[in-house]
Amino acid sequence: MAEKIKFELVSPAKLLLSSPVDMVVVPGGEGDFGALSRHAPMITTVRPGVIDVHDGGKVSSRIFVAGGFAEVTEERITVLAEEAIPVNELTADMLAARKKVAKEAIDDAKSDADKGKAARLLAIAEAMETAIG
Question: Model pTM?
Answer without folding.
Answer: 0.92
